[in-house]
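User: Could you check the structure of this?
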Amino acid sequence: MNINNKHLCGLLVIASFVTLMTGCESNSSAITSVSSAPISEGTTTSSATVSDAEALVESVNFTVKPVVSYAPGDVFDITGMTVKVNLSNGHSKQYFDSDFSSWTHKDEALTEDVNKITFAIADRVYSYFDLPITVSYADDINAVLIERVKFDQRYYSRSEHPDFRTYEVIDFTYLTVKIQMVGETDYIEVTNWNLFDGETEFTNNQFVWFETAGVHNLVVKYHNKASDVLALTVVENTSR
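Assistant: Sure, the predicted C-alpha cells are below.
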C-alpha cells in the first residue's frame, strides 16, 4: 500500500484478517510503503498516552541501507541495515539487521522481476515495510578470469564389471572466478557464474563427470557478458 501525503492515516479491514494502515509522511530515505495493525482495539493513534507496544507504525526511515543493486542469481544481503520506525504516539524505535528474521525472497536467487524486499517487523503484529531494489545484468563487465588450480587433467575409470563404468566426479566449485569491470584494473571474486561444455550448461557445478576422454574446452560465463575458457583433459584409466 503506497504512502499518500494527501490523505489522513486510515484503517482498512480485509476479510477480518489483517488491518492495514498507510503512513502519512515519506522522504527520499524513507520506505515506499508501510502497513501496520493495532495490538489492541480502541487505540487512538494520535494520542501520546498510547504505549509503544500499542502504537501503530506510521513510517519507516532507513538509517543505513543494505546493498540494493543485485545481478540475477544473487541472494539479498541484509547486512548492515538499520531503520528508524516512527510510531503514532510520537515515539520512534531503532531496528538493526539482527532484529529481522523474515522478509520476502529470503535465501532465494533473485530474478529480474523482483523490485522490492518486504520486511516483517518481528515485535509488531502485521507490520511490514518495503525496500526497493534492482536486479539486472551488469553491462560494464570487461573480463572474466579463472584461477586454474589442479584442474589440468581428469579421467574416467572402468569398474571391475565389463558392462559398467564409474566416473570421477569433479567439484568445480573449488574454482576461483573473478571479473574485471570496465575502466578498472583490479579483479573481484564472484560466485554466481555458469559452467558450460560446448553449448551444454552443467546444472550442478559440484558434481560433474565426463563420459568421453579427450580435451574438453569448458567455458565459464558471468551473466553471459564475458567468459573464460578452461581446457580440461580427460584421460581414460584402463587399469582394472
